[in-house]
Amino acid sequence: MEAGTLRCPTCGASASPDATSCSFCRAALATVACPGCFGRMFLGAKFCSHCGARPADAPRSDGRLQPCPECALPLDGRSVGATPLGQCSRCSGVWLDVETFQRVCRESERQSAMLLGLPAASPAARQVVRYVPCPDCGKRMNRLNFARVSGVVVDVCKPHGVWFNRDELRRVVEFIRQGGMAESLAREREDLVEQRRRLTEQQGQGGSLGGGLGGATAGESLAGSTAGEVIFELLGWFVP
Predict the structure, then answer these.
(1) Entry pTM
(2) In whole angstroms, what is the distance from residue 23 CA to residue 200 CA?
(3) Other CB atoms within 10 Å distance of the CB of residue 158
(4) How far is it, in rounded angstroms, from Cα 44 to Cα 122?
(5) What's the pLDDT tens digit per position in 109-140?
(6) Which class for 170: exposed (0-12), middle (13-18), buried (19 or more C-beta within 10 A)?
(7) For the sheet containing 153-157, what is the strand order?
(8) Strand 31-33 relative to strand 40-42, pairing
């Protein structure tokens, strides 16, 4: 390997540390700092080519290592740009805590880094639908369609964070950058208008409220909100 070059973690070809994709296999590349020598290494590398150190493992809130919800292997603690995350070396799934995911949803710079630093898209594979445990608390997470209209079903532990199978975080970021959250907000507001119309009709017919509003409280909270402010409100409205 030439001096000043690194190995692509996908195919092993030599690549410049400044490369954003591998010239051989076309996989996306992004560098992170080695926890041992602080040299540059590619995200996804098993060890640092300078000192041999492995990427730091992601700790849980209780200090123990976070296990992958799918593979049960310890997650590798890594950073994509300025964003820390836990990633499984086997299945390439990604774990983001609540605060970090909110920042990714709000900040375009983090979104750009994610699109460059996450593994390249893989052919769609049929997945067995199952409920997996939160890497932090171990409780079974809810599965939901992010923002209700994205078509990306993610695993959510509302107190702790979101688990993304391979490609899912990239697809969520693309959805946000294409204006998907604005579409989601518009739909929620339309639903609120329809709920109010039905309530007015009920009142005109002498009907009782009787809990008929359902999600009106959530809808009203959207009235003056921006997309970034309602990310986890939308995540919290899980409909089986």
Answers:
(1) 0.63
(2) 62
(3) 14
(4) 15
(5) 888 888 877 766 666 555 678 899 999 999 99
(6) buried
(7) 76-80, 83-87, 94-97, 161-164, 153-157, 142-145
(8) antiparallel
Q: How far is CA 58 from the centre of its chain?
A: 16
DSSP string, 25-66: T--B--EEE-TTT--EEETT-SS-TTT-PPPPBPBPTTSSBP
Structure-token pair, residue 13:
């070809």
pLDDT band at 67 (very low <50, low <70, confident <90, very high): very high
Please give the structure tokens belonging to residue 101. Answer: 């995911």
Rounded to the nearest 10 degrees, what angle do helices 108-117 and 98-106 cross at? 100
